[in-house]
Recover the amino acids of this structure.
């Protein structure tokens, strides 16, 4: 191989070159956002190849398939595509699904096992809960799945669960004493269906590597060089796989940033990064400090935020980039107005700077926030794409076609079967399906196998029904024959027609109905593209099972649509690793971001703060923080106050866009001297941007502007006050509970009526003066 690798290495700074050029041994690169970690991994792979390492011996694990694809493309440019295509590169799930196909028989699975997506898993769990006659309001299927998922990711198998009284007790305490039973049934049913769910792909890989030393040796020998991006977000199960595979050669290079660990809620374990040095001998640790992505303002503001976290590794991040613009902060009355602001700003920036839509991203904490943004973008005719909603492959009509195809490959696949056995309607009713399910459980067979011998067992079905079941079996078998002789595209088209799916959809002449048919066409095109891509790469005939695997593990982040000049809308979680010139972080409100569900402990709050750090560091040139004073949540209009994260950025980095005068209704209060010792002249210069009344004012607040920012512009609404404490009730010496500051002792009371204030010494936060009219206090 004749590669001019030096040209690429010279594009790295010295600190980046060091880990790139260390060929062997364990190493970890810990560095802040935008410092080139992913770039180092990419060039390092090319470097290894230039040093004679065979592409087949390199395994690179990335966070998304898209990241893997991009990395591969970049490496192809350096070493040529014929070499690069042999690299093992992808997400944990996609790589280990491939390995499990080769080894499935060892675990008792068929090599054509199905992969259940979350929808399939939830449906199966619901069915089990129903069969066991449990209360689905107590055993909420999604929650149960979450629990099972966390067991699997901690390698707690059903057996381990039943050997652990503590776990059982914990479930009993949370009113789910029969969770273990559901877990057991769920695992049995997946096994019987020849199916693995997402977590199984990791769990079963661990099982494979620990039970079969020869298999472990084989893959250790194959993956002599292992590289992991976003290492801070690996969970225990993933960690053990990496550990096992790298144990022999110890050529392991992981890169990550503890400050960007945002998946603890899903079991990611930040200790993986912290303990790396203990796990291997002679670990080389590298740090990168220069950020190439963002302006100085953004880098420094991000540093200021993460500095507030107690649990963190000390890191320096600086940039030689321009100072750039300040981070713009915008307040609006409602979420609708927030959307309009974002859309019109994008419109203006595009016009002013001649930019494409693809330069903009809108990031939010929860998917529900996308609606207001979408409405506003649509009104402005700005094309956008939402990532991470229902993926294309999860749409009903698409999943219906895919379910037939899954049955062709693996007729035992119960979820696929139940989905389509009577769709389009062919007279096989629910009670028949129930009888089949009971029989299948009884005989420990799949439903399809029961249907194959329906003549020989007595399920008390009439002959008409039996015929219908046999017809269904015959139809699926005829598809299997076609699959042996034709390519996947031909088969899929045949299935869509012969099952009656297309006719069924044609009955619906509404635009939605037409769109569904178009989606099926799009799926067929996708299959054609896939098999053509395969032919190019391997000269292989398009394999349906490979397509299905790709689809099962695809996220819509991975999908290249070609017409990508669109504004990107996604949750912050999905935005990890990506970068955009302009980034809007919307919904910067307390209870939304940080999320109300993540404020109970310091570690939860710190994870939210890391999430904010991730969001801000996606921006190259300009970041916007927007918030609304009220928004619809769960169908109700709720008031909100600005996120504490805005306050945590020093004002120096911020520019408030919303004019003060319009909204400032509390000015008289300053004149009424409620701010005690605060320097009033200073206060008046500050633009109020907050949405709540001045619930408290301290006499020694180091940041008076912070207090002002909590002022509520009333806009005709009454102040949202909490239960005011009747004057007579509160006396010095009372112990009180404040919603935000916690427990404290009343030292002193002053003023009368609406101006009555209490001086309170809080256990955390010291002495504060609160205006009783607004303070949310309970005497305890
Ligand atoms: P994150 O933590 O967000 O994943 P990262 O550390 O992986 O970030 P990269 O995405 O690799 O950072 O790099 C950030 C940006 O800086 C990219 O656009 C990359 O091309 C650019 N970059 C990295 N190193 C250099 C360099 N030495 N010279 C010029 N540009 C660079
Ligand atoms: Mg990266």
């Amino acid at each position: 191989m004749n590669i001019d690798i030096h040209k690429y290495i010279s594009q790295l700074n010295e600190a980046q070159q060091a880990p790139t050029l260390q060929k062997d041994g364990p190493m970890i690169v810990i560095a802040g956002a935008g410092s080139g970690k992913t770039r180092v991994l990419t060039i390092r792979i090319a470097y290894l190849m230039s040093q004679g390492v065979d592409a087949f011996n390199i395994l690179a694990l990335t966070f998304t398939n898209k990241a893997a694809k991009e990395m591969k493309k970049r490496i192809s440019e350096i070493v040529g595509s014929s070499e690069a295509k042999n690299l093992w590169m992808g997400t944990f799930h996609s790589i280990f699904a491939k390995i499990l196909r080769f080894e499935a028989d060892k675990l008792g699975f068929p090599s054509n096992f199905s992969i259940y997506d979350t929808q399939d898993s939830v449906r199966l769990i619901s069915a089990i809960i129903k069969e066991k006659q449990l209360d689905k309001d107590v055993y909420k299927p999604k929650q149960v799945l979450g629990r099972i998922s966390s067991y699997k990711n901690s390698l707690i198998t059903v057996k381990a669960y039943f050997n652990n009284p503590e776990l059982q007790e914990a479930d009993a305490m949370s009113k789910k004493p029969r969770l273990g039973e559901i877990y057991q049934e769920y695992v049995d049913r997946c096994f019987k269906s020849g199916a693995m769910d997402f977590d199984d792909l990791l769990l079963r890989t661990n099982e494979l590597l620990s039970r079969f030393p020869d298999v472990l040796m084989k893959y250790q020998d194959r993956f002599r060089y292992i590289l992991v991006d976003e290492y801070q977000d690996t969970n225990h199960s993933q960690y053990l796989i990496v550990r096992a595979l790298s144990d022999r050669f110890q050529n392991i290079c992981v890169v990550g940033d503890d400050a960007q660990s945002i998946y603890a809620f899903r079991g990611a374990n930040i200790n993986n990064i912290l303990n790396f040095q203990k796990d291997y001998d002679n670990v080389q640790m590298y740090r990168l400090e220069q950020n190439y992505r963002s302006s100085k303002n953004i880098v420094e503001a991000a540093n200021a935020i993460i500095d507030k976290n107690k649990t963190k590794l000390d890191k320096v991040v600086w940039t030689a980039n321009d100072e750039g613009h300040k981070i713009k902060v915008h307040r609006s009355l409602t979420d609708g107005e927030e959307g309009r602001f974002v859309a019109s700003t994008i419109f203006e920036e595009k016009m002013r700077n001649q930019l494409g839509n693809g330069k903009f991203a809108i990031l939010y904490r929860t998917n529900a926030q996308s609606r207001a943004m979408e409405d506003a973008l649509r009104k402005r005719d700005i094309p956008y794409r939402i990532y991470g909603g229902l993926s294309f492959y999860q749409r009903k009509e698409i999943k219906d076609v895919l379910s037939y195809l899954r049955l062709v490959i693996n007729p035992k696949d119960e979820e696929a079967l139940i989905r389509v056995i009577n769709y389009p309607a062919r007279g096989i009713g629910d009670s028949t399906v129930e009888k089949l399910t009971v029989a299948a459980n009884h005989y420990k067979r799949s439903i399809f196998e029961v249907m194959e011998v329906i003549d020989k067992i007595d399920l008390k079905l009439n002959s008409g029904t039996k015929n219908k079941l046999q017809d269904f079996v015959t139809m699926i078998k005829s598809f299997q024959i076609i699959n042996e002789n034709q390519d996947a595209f031909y088969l899929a088209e045949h299935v869509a027609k012969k099952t009656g799916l297309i006719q069924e959809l044609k009955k619906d002449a509404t635009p939605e109905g037409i769109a569904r048919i178009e989606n099926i066409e799009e799926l067929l095109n996708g299959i054609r593209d896939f098999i053509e891509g395969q032919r190019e790469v391997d000269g292989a005939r398009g394999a349906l099972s490979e397509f299905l695997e790709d689809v099962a593990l695809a996220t819509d982040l991975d999908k290249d649509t070609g017409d990508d000049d669109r504004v990107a809308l996604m949750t912050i979680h999905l935005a990890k690793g990506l970068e955009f010139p302009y980034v809007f972080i919307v919904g910067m409100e307390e209870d939304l971001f940080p999320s109300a569900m993540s404020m109970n402990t310091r570690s939860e709050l710190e994870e939210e703060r890391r999430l904010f750090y991730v969001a801000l560091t996606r921006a190259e040139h300009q970041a916007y923080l927007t918030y609304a004073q009220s928004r619809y949540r769960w169908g109700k209009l709720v008031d909100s106050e600005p996120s504490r994260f805005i306050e945590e950025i020093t004002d120096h980095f911020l520019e408030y866009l919303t004019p003060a005068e319009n909204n400032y209704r509390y000015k008289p209060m300053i004149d009424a001297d409620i701010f005690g010792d605060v320097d009033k002249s200073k206060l008046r210069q500050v633009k109020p941007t907050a949405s709540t009344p001045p619930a408290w004012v301290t006499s020694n607040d180091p940041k008076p502007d912070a207090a002002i920012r909590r002022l509520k512009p009333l806009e005709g609404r009454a102040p949202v006050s909490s239960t005011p404490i009747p004057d007579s009730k509160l006396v010095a010496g009372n112990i009180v509970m404040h919603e935000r500051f916690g427990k404290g002792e009343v030292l002193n009371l002053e003023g009368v009526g609406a101006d009555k204030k209490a001086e309170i010494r809080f256990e955390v936060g010291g002495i504060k003066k609160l205006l009783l009219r607004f303070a949310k206090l309970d005497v305890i």
